[in-house]
Amino acid sequence: MQPGKISVGEAVSWVAGGWKIFIASPGTWLLIGLVDLLISSAIQFVPFIGMLLAFMVAPIFTAGLLYAAREIEAGREIRLDYLFQGFREPGRMGPLLGLGGIYIGSMVAIVVVCVLVLVLTGATADLGRDAAGAAGLLDSQALYILLVVLIAIALFLPVLMALYYAIPLVMFHRSPIWAALGSSLTACLRNFLPLLVFGLVLLVPLLVLALILGAIVGLFLALFTATASSAVAGGVLAVVLGMLLMFLVSIPLVTILTGMNFCSYRSVYKDYPEDRGTGMAV
């Protein structure tokens, strides 16, 4: 699959497109989002490997969400079991798990590189000496932190671009892992400006939402620490309620963002053959 080149205006339209996909069947989407988040949260409680396992299977559930979005776009009804479509479609689960493994390996490699940079530049020794000799964050510490952050971003960005369209390419086109990663990276580089504008447009409501949630959690914290018999107990209760609120907000947010991501994929990969009997590309 060869990615096309899109305009900035088309990229901005993905926001409305994602909302349109969600509003076409909001009740089912909310149920799908709830089950997805519950499963993802439960997997993380698996002893020792929970977090790794959650990252491994995440592409499979993402593929299911994208499949549901595609069914909506085709004018068909969606069902809860579409969340598990990545497990059912022949030849999809293995490559999708492979994408999860590549993500985990990439994150480990980025961390290792950042640690090596700190060690080879002598930053770890300087940080230890500064911490022992002064309180607060010194200028040298801030520079080292900035260096590590910039390196991490520079390494993570191509990983993110390679994975962005890889999941739908594997799911809808049976693309081999490396072909999907290469095509996704090419698509993101070719459409870097539209994708950047889309990200910035999406960032505004997400920041507003984050500020509102932060203010509500802060209000919980102030209220419960002032009224509870124990300040610690009040703080714990406020944090728990805040986490519950964020979980509830995440349910529609995950599904709406899925619709936007599908619109993004559909714009970049406009023409593909389709098996109308199954709704899957061939």
Question: Can you tell me about this structure?
Answer:
- The chain has 282 residues and is mainly α.
- The chain has one domain (8-281).
- The protein has helices at 8-23, 26-43, 50-73, 85-88, 93-120, 123-133, 139-164, 166-173, 177-190, 192-227, 231-268; strands at residues 274-275, 280-281.
- The protein has a two-stranded antiparallel sheet.
- Helix 2 (26-43) crosses helix 11 (231-268), helix 3 crosses helix 11 and helix 7 packs across helix 9 (177-190).
- The N and C termini lie close together (12 Å).
Topology at a glance:
Elements: H1 8-23, H2 26-43, H3 50-73, H4 85-88, H5 93-120, H6 123-133, H7 139-164, H8 166-173, H9 177-190, H10 192-227, H11 231-268, E1 274-275, E2 280-281
Antiparallel strand pairs: 1-2
Produce a short descriptive summary:
The chain is an all-alpha fold. It is 79% helix and 1% strand.
Decide which structural class fits the backbone.
mainly alpha
User: How far apart are the termini?
Assistant: 12 Å
Tell me about the largest β-sheet: 2 strands, antiparallel
Count the domains: 1
Ranges where pLDDT stays below 50 over 5 or more residues in a row are: 275-279
Strand content: under 5%
Order of helices and strands: HHHHHHHHHHHEE
Compute the CA-based radius of gyration: 22 Å
Number of strand segments: 2
Overall mean confidence score, pLDDT: 85
List its salient traits.
1% strand; 282 residues; 11 helices; globular; 2 strands; two-stranded antiparallel sheet; mainly alpha
